[in-house]
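Hey, resending since the last one bounced:
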Amino acid sequence: MLTFKPMTIDMEHPLKSLEDTINKMDPDNKDRKKRQSEALQHYADGSVCLLNLVNDNDIVGTNYKLLFSQFKVYVLPVKTTEQLFPILREDDIQFVLDLPGLIMLFEFFAEV
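The structure tokens again:
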């Protein structure tokens, strides 16, 4: 059986009121918030990377939000990286540009 429930949207804060309404209907809301806080803690501990926090439905938007907000982006120092990964021959190294790096380069270039 499908049930429709009326909802009220606050026109001053439409997204917030819509999110609140959806959260009230979601029985797993507490579990979702708990999983999100655990993921943030794992990120702060260094056991997962920034990519694990990105929303699959809004990859570019989530990256922008994480990179250009008050969110702390953790970066390993070069010495730590060298200790974690073995020294590779120059022929074995492949340079890649990940999406956060590409976004940062685009924004820095746009500012210049």
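Helices lie at 14-25, 29-45, 59-67, 78-84, 99-111.

Sorry for the duplicate.
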